[in-house]
Amino acid sequence: MSAVDYPAVSCTNLTKSFDSVNAADNVTLSLDKGSILSLLGPSGCGKTTTLRLIAGFEEPDTGIVTIDNQVVAGDRIFVPPEKRRVGMVFQEYALFPHMNVAKNIEYGLNKYEKQTNRLNEMLKLVDLEDVKERMPHQLSGGQQQRVALARALAPNPRIILLDEPFSNLDPNLRNEVQQETLRILRIASTTAIFVTHSQEEAMAIGDNIAIMKDGQIEQLGTPETIFHDPVNRFVAEFIGTSSFLPAWIDEDQLVCEVGSFNAPDKLNISNQNIEIMIRPSQLSVTPSESGTCKITKKTFQGSFYLYDVVTQSGLEIKCLETYSKDYDLGTSVELHFLENEAPSIFVKGRKHD
Description:
six-stranded mixed sheet; globular
């Protein structure tokens, strides 16, 4: 097998505990060269610990980390961070306040690299040529983020690790900086792992997403797979908006409070705790005096309204309608599944295939 066939990064059965808490619990993943992985999950799920294990800031209790087919942790081997050729972009950027933009970017370059045009290449890549003499406090948040990214990229790392790099930015600036960062990483053909707790950021940036919970990876796949085919209820609820309704089998139909559809062949009456997952776009809302559901909340989203609808049994379901369907709070409505929008089925919290 040639070198190009090896993953840029792989983690095999990584574990790391702090005071009996499993911060990383049997984490296994791999990342192709030039691709971007989003590590997504709630606070305390193990995202940053996994990143620190790859960077070398923490040593795993068990498991193996390889970078470009070199074992950097495991099998009685531990390569220190400075020897791994890993670039880091931190939440606080960690720029040197006493150094200007150019000095910050070239900080990690060796003597030979400083004699080349590497600094100018980086300044051009991140579009900071006109501010290279400015100090960090004279820059906007977006400019500071680009300086941190350029500094990490300058020594030609084998991988870039980004830990919540946009969390300190104003919401109006965040999307712009996300797209600019993605553009820079793509142009540089850089392999990257990006830690976030925002599903929108994870889907916008990652070629693949790893959903983490309690130190474990619940699911790893493309954003489309994670969204449309979640393996369990935790993933389904964490990425995207979803509603879950109890369901039961009646002859060949799977029935729930708002409708029914053909039951899959492998699903039978012996299955317990059946639920269906509904995304807001899978239902239509129709006002009806005899309707047993009521609109309790509506949120204007530009081209759409997001309605909270409460069923007769008290379950809350979110439904998305175009802005032309403007209904008042308290309106009695009927809910209908849209054609060709069969919802996902879960049995005991796991996706039923």
